[in-house]
Amino acid sequence: MLRTIFALLGVGETLRPKKPALPSRIRYVTFRVENREAARALYDWHRQWEAASREIRSFIEYKFGTSLMRIDRPSYKLNDDGRLHSVAFNYFVPVGWSGIPGTHWLVPKTGDALAEVRALPCAPPRRDMHGLINWPTLDPDWFHFSERETVRFVNHMPRPFGDDGGTFVAVPHPDNFKDFPRIQEMIRRWEKPDWLTEKTQPAPEKNL
Known about the structure:
single chain; 7 helices; 208 residues; 10 strands; four-stranded antiparallel sheet
């Protein structure tokens, strides 16, 4: 009874510390790439990333899809070198794959499964794209174990793209990381290249 009353009064919320978290909508800042060589390098990186991602997604849809049309696709993770590392459990475990203890992720274990993964293309490393814009690549080992998944996610946030107006790169705003002061400080210390010009129109927010 007392627990119910405290819950209604919100007492429990004041006693329990809030768990650090990213906002439900990530705020981005978009920059136009004014350097032709940098724009070409970012375009090439993006083209390679998209090509590799298409093949990886197709493999996962075929191997892990549980619907009749195999159109569902579970989440997946890549290694730092851009190779497929693990796939989220989706109520089906293919032959040769097994779970990582204490997680919902599956990894290849047998020789055949490992060979299938090695045959997939490697996506270009994120750190290569970060280097093009002088963006900090965060090392998960620098952070507490509880923050490492967030750090890996942050490393995937910067994204180059292009349209008829040119080449652009969107990066997360420091305000996203109020619950993670170390990450926020590293983002604030980013030394932006002179050839990146901020767009006057705000970049759209993106749901997590």
